[in-house]
Amino acid sequence: MAESEAIRVVLIDDHTLFRKGLAELLEHSGRIQVVGITGDPTEARSLLEQTAPDVVVLDLHIPLTNGIDLLTQLREEGFTMPVLILTVSDAEEDIANALRAGARGYLLKNMEPDEVVDAILRAARREIVVAPAMTAKLVNLLDARQAQESLLSQLTGREREILAYLAQGLSNKAIGRLLDISHDTVKFHVKHILSKLNLGSRVEAAIFAVEHKITSNRPFDS
Q1: pLDDT tens digit sequence for 94-126
Q2: Which ranges constitute the DSSP H helices of the chain?
C-alpha cells in the first residue's frame, strides 16, 4: 500500500451516534476512508466481503453476540484483515480475550481522536496497538503467562499426561488403568502437579490444563 493511499476502514458498533461521529472524525483526518459502518454482526460479514477494508474497528459489546465471538467467527471464516477492538472496558480479561481471538489492538473510547487515528494507521501496517492506559495491564498479562509457562516446564512428561487426564475429569483409578499404574501412584503425581503449579485442587488443575491446551494423545474409552 502506497503511503499516499487512504486506509480503508469498516466500523462495527451498535451505537449509531458514536459510530457516525467516529466516522466523521476519521474522515476528517484525511488519511482514512470509512468504507462501511454497521451495528449488525450479520450485516458485518457481507460488508467486509464487499468492501475488503484494510482495518476493522470493532466494538466489544454488540447485540446478538459480542465483539470477541464475532472476531473469532470472522477469523474462522477466513477474514484476515487487522481488527481493532474499541471499547469502554479496561478489564484485563477483555484485553486478554481480544488478543487471544486475533485482535491486532485494543483501544479505549476515551482516547484522544488523534490517538485513534494513529492506532488505525499502525494497525494497517500490521503493528499491534494497545491503548496507553492498557499497557501496564498487558505487561501484567505477559508476565503472568511467562510465569505459567515456567511452572509448566517443571512438570515431567508423566505429570503432563496426568494433567491432561485431569482436564477430562478422570478419577485417579481411571487414570491408573489408562497408564497401567496404581491409583496411589497417580495420587502421588497429582500431589506434585498441584504443588508445582501452585494450585489448590484437581478442579483448578483441570481448568489450568484446558486454558493451556494440555491434551493427551490417548483416547479414554469408558
Answers
A1: 888 888 888 999 999 999 999 999 999 999 998
A2: 16-28, 41-51, 67-76, 92-101, 113-124, 135-152, 157-167, 172-179, 183-197, 202-211
Residue 51 falls inside a structural domain: yes
Give pTM, 2 decimals: 0.64
161 and 201 inside one domain: yes
Question: What whole-number distance in Å separates Cα of residue 115 and Cα of residue 121?
Answer: 10
What gap in Å lies between CA 222 and CA 219, rounded to an integer?
10
CATH number at residue 174: 1.10.10.10
How far is residue 217 CA from its own chain's centroid?
26
- Could you tell me the residue range of the domain that residue 189 belongs to? 147-211
Q: At what angle do helices 113-124 and 16-28 cross, to 10 degrees?
A: 70
- Number of domains the chain contains: 2
